[in-house]
Amino acid sequence: MFKDKHDVQQGLSQQQYIATEEISTVLFLAERLDKPILAEGPAGVGKTELAKAWAGATGRELIRLQCYEGLDETKALYEWEYAKQMLYTQLLRDKLSQLLSEAETLSAAADRLAAEEDVFFSQRFLLPRPLLRALMSDKPVVLLIDEIDRSDTEFEAFLLEILSDFQVSVPELGTIKARHQPLVLLTSNNTRELSEALKRRCLYLFVDYPSMEQELNIIRLKVPELNLKLAQQAVQIVQRLRTMDLKKSPSVSETLDWAKALVALNADHMDETTLNTTLTVLLKHEADVQRARGGGLEGRSSRSGAQAVDRYDTFDNDPRRRKR
User: Fold this and answer.
1) Domain match, 24 and 113 both
2) Average pLDDT for residues 130-148, to the nearest whole number?
3) pLDDT tens string 302-319
4) CATH classification of the domain holding 23
5) 166-188 burial, b if ≥16 CB within 10 A, otherwise e?
6) Within this chain, do residues 48 and 119 fall inside the same structural domain, yes or no?
7) pTM, whole model, 2 decimals?
8) What CA–CA distance (Å, rounded) separates 298 from 290?
9) How many structural domains comprise the chain?
10) Do 136 and 121 share a structural domain?
11) 199: domain range?
12) What Å distances lie between residue 139 and 41, 62, 136, 182, CA to CA?
């Protein structure tokens, strides 16, 4: 367990995740209060990576449930292997006949059969899916329920029992309680409004696009081969694109892809040709590409590149801000 929020920040940093003070605080409180976290924000800002880093920092296995429209209990919780149960019944038919033949009355036979129910209704026929795996795990885990907003409201309601009491009801076996309460992170891209009942059970965290300084830190951490000036120019362009009226703004993961592409092309500065030929790494709609090309990005970035590097050097050498 983390000692304080600064310990959380350091642990995530060791997993190459740059966390804000707000993120560190919410993760610390989630552990102390035994509460799930609901992390909302635009797609691609690092919500899923946060769960991976949290698992790494705590030394726990990450169990992930990817949500989608039509997801139901059998795909998220468990499946009962009826075919296997039937096979057991057939193989043990002779043994059952012998057992029941020794009973003198029908009531006695029923009692004998009931005494053997554990053979036919046991966890050997249970195929656990992510939710049940997290509850039944012999060791504490981190449970990631990814993109909960893509699931139906019925499935969201089903989750309430798990998030409230960390137990589930399995008709064939009864109630199964968590051996160890998992750390739970739910993510949402805000494609629909989630219920108040779900939100009430969680600590809320909004993960937004990073600031210019934070995004530079991420690039320097993840793509250290990219020279500082070009990294600064790339981040400036990405930040500028996010202010434009686009169908899809570039995510942090796409910024990293672009940085890696620039390294692969051996680019040492941002010129118009480099920008135009690599812009589709960032933007995935032709209308967005055309709008960006008409926005004068290359002129803006090249004019202010040196000044921006100076600003970043000031930021990078300030230990108080570097921890953000």
Assistant:
1) no
2) 95
3) 444 444 444 444 344 444
4) 3.40.50.300
5) bebebeebeebebeeebbbbbbb
6) no
7) 0.79
8) 14
9) 3
10) no
11) 5-77+129-206
12) 30, 11, 9, 9
